[in-house]
Amino acid sequence: MEVVPSMPDVLENRDFLKEIDFTRDELQHLIDLAAELKAAKRSGTEEQQLSGRSIALIFEKSSTRTRCAFEVAAYDQGAHVTYLDPTSSQIGHKESAADTARVLARMFDAIEFRGKAQATIEELASGADVPVYNGLTDEWHPTQMLADFLTMQEHTASHAAAPSYCFLGDGRFNMGRSLLVMGAIMGSDVRICAPQSLWPDAEAQAIARERAEESGAVITLTEDLDEGLRGVDFVHTDVWVSMGEPTEVWESRVRELMPYQVNAAALARTGNSATKFMHCLPAYHDESTLVGRDVAALTGVTGGLEVTDEVFKSSATIAFDQAENRLHTIKALMVATLAR
Ligand code: CP
Ligand code: NVA
User: Fold this and answer.
1) Closest-lying ligand to the alpha carbon of 280?
2) What does the pLDDT look like over 277-313, one tens digit per residue?
């Protein structure tokens, strides 16, 4: 008789490199576990399941939420972390990420990596016999997807597992690609609304269509704002220039994406007064940051770029619930893969 492994067994020691390595049930299990851990933390009944474990956090790119979520989640669960960035370690200039990972796998129980190419983390994972977690690459942001789906499920009256949403903005990077593919896996009505030149690439589209056939998801890529926004429960966006891109692209990107800004008119186009606004953060919603000021001076656009200050500060925004949920979902990932 074939023994079907239980969900905890299936997730034990697994890498978390990209959404497509997982089934809908596995991803939903992580989201459900995060909800349980969140409730336990809030009620003061959380039990430590990672005592004595050590986790290495490699960041080739900067981070607030992802780093803090990994650190606090580890501490809450009794684990230790070591943070490594390119300026205080040998990574990048004297040692490759792959060699670094082979070293770290001898010392740590798991490795988180944030960097540029997905190929680097895939190589790193193949050389490390401990779980490797993707804290963002140019191509995918899978831990963000766990938080986004927990947040959407919390804010959908029916707690529907597959909410409807539209991503407005540059769909070629991690957030656009991950929201497309995660929605396809989970069975969502998922729409990417942007100029065609900024849609997720053909490979991401093909993966999404394949997974949508299994899940029943509806995939829409469109330049048309009405087609993208009509009726959706959630509107997502992301920065218009991602980490690692040259600052010179700001001017043309603002010009291309201004029609796809999340503003009051865009939210009104949903025709759904309950639509919520989501953003992985950080967001350029005013001129209170250096980049926000520089881009305003360069383009003359004030009061927000990918989202207006008005929408960002409105009751439609659930981006801070989303940010908090990074903690609970990353904790769930570490517990599911590492707890004995
Ligand atoms: N959303 C997100 O990944 O935030 P950080 O870049 O601050 O980690
Ligand atoms: N697309 C953004 C996401 C930041 C969390 C970037 O890569 O900079």
Assistant:
1) 1
2) 999 999 999 999 999 999 999 999 999 999 999 999 9
Q: Which architecture characterizes domain 7-140+326-338 according to CATH? A: 3-Layer(aba) Sandwich (3.40)
Phi-psi region of 290 (alpha: psi -120 to 50; beta: other; left: phi over 0): alpha
Q: If you measure from the C-alpha of residue 48 to the centroid of ligand 2, how many angstroms do you get, rounded to a whole number? A: 31
Domain spans, the chain: 7-140+326-338, 156-317
Q: Ligand 2, residue 66: give the atom nearest the CA.
A: 5
User: Cα(250)–Cα(190) distance, rounded to whole angstroms?
Assistant: 27
pLDDT tens for 51-63 read 999 999 999 999 9
Which atom of ligand 1 has the smallest separation from the CA of 62? 6
CATH fold for domain 156-317: Rossmann fold (3.40.50)
Residues whose beta carbon lies within 6 Å of some atom of ligand 1: 63-66, 136, 144, 280-281
Residue among 279, 275, 298, 272 at smallest CA distance from 287: 298
Euclidean distance between CA atoms 246 and 334, whole angstroms: 34
Answer yes or no: is the C-beta of 175 below 6 A from any ligand 2 atom.
yes
**What's the CA-to-centroid distance between 175 and ligand 2, angstroms?**
7
299 alpha carbon, distance to own chain's centre: 28
pTM of the predicted model as reported, rounded to 2 decimal places: 0.96
Are 7-140+326-338 and 156-317 equal in CATH topology?
Answer: yes
Q: Which residue's structure tokens are 């690439």?
A: 201
3-class secondary structure, 231: coil
